[in-house]
């Protein structure tokens, strides 16, 4: 079993899912009491989200690299960043630590490619919807056109994610916003939706959506579990 390092706490709600889903998948495959060998560094999300909001990506990278180096010293051989937006500095972490970062978009792109889709909706934080670190791997590896909401909706979604979902709060206004935005993208031709924020699954449930849902957290944890079971 390979030892996995998780940069977590972004948010703690989603990190709980990372831990439980990785171990549940390994137990399903291996049986018995088999579980992952992993090391977790849980950040204070208030600190990290403030850096995200301020665009201080050099400081984010430094924090991630410092934590990952400690995990490497503890025997970790691969790093997982437990949130989509944190992957903006994935390459810096990989280069700074000398270990592979198991990228969330890579696992998602593979799942999309298998379905041979043409257009997908991308719902995420503003940074993840506007920058290329999630969109480009999906478009290039899966060969899909990635549709994102209008700027005003990206701004509204970003505020809701950081001020509400990050604190474990789901309001009716936020649910209405997310479903309206998704419906508009479906009307523009989206054949599926990629939930590229690890807290969006608390709002958007597959049973409430008319197109297939690709939850990056779920795909990431499955891929991480498979990696951990590798030789």
Could you explain how this protein is built, in words?
The protein has 231 residues and is an alpha/beta fold. The protein has two domains: 111 residues, 3-Layer(aba) Sandwich (Rossmann fold), CATH 3.40.50; 111 residues, Rossmann fold, CATH 3.40.50.1860. The chain contains ten helices and seven strands. Strands 5-4-6-7 form a four-stranded parallel beta sheet, with helices on both faces. A three-stranded parallel beta sheet has the order 2-1-3, sandwiched between helices. Strand 1, helix 1 and strand 2 form a beta-alpha-beta unit. Helix 5 packs parallel to helix 7, helix 5 crosses helix 10 and helix 8 runs antiparallel to helix 9. The longest helix is centred in the N-terminal third of the chain and has 19 residues. Belongs to the aspartate/glutamate racemases family. GO terms for molecular function: amino-acid racemase activity. InterPro entries: Asp/Glu/hydantoin_racemase, Asp/Glu_race, Asp_race. Keywords: Isomerase. It comes from Phaeoacremonium minimum (strain UCR-PA7) (Esca disease fungus).
Integer tally of domains = 2
Strand residue content: 5-15%
From N to C, what is the helix and strand string? EHEHHEHHEHHEHHEEH
Radius of gyration, CA atoms, in whole angstroms: 17 Å
Strand order of the largest sheet: 5-4-6-7
Please state the second-level CATH architecture of the largest domain: 3-Layer(aba) Sandwich
Principal-axis shape equals globular
Largest β-sheet summary: 4 strands, parallel
β-strand number = 7
Helix content: 40-55%
Question: How widely separated are the two ends?
Answer: 7 Å
The average pLDDT score comes to: 95
Oligomer: single chain
Which stretches are poorly predicted, pLDDT < 50 over at least 5 residues?
Answer: none
CATH C-level of the largest domain = Alpha Beta
Given the helix and strand composition, which structural class is it? Answer: alpha/beta
Number of helical segments with 4 or more residues: 10
CATH topology (level 3) name of the largest domain = Rossmann fold
């Amino acid at each position: 079993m390979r030892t996995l390092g998780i940069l977590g706490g972004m948010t703690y709600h989603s990190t709980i899912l990372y831990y439980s889903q990785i171990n549940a998948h390994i137990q399903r495959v291996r049986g018995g009491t088999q579980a992952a060998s992993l090391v977790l560094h849980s950040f204070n999300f208030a600190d990290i989200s403030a850096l995200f909001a301020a665009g201080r990506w050099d400081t984010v990278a430094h924090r991630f690299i410092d934590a990952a180096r400690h995990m490497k010293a503890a025997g970790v051989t691969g790093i997982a960043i437990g949130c989509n937006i944190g992957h903006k500095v994935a390459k810096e972490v990989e280069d700074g630590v000398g270990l592979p970062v198991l990228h969330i978009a890579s696992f998602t792109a593979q799942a999309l490619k298998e379905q041979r889709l043409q257009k997908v909706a991308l719902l995420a934080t503003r940074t993840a919807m506007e920058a290329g670190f999630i969109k480009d791997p999906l478009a290039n590896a899966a060969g899909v056109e990635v549709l994102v909401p209008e700027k005003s909706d990206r701004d509204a979604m970003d505020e809701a994610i950081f001020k509400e979902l990050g604190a474990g709060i789901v309001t009716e206004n936020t649910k209405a916003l997310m479903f309206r935005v998704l419906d508009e993208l479906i009307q523009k031709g989206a054949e599926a939706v990629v939930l590229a924020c690890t807290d969006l699954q608390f709002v958007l449930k597959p049973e409430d959506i008319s197109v297939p849902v690709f939850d990056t957290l779920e795909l990431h944890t499955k891929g991480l579990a498979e990696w951990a079971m590798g030789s």
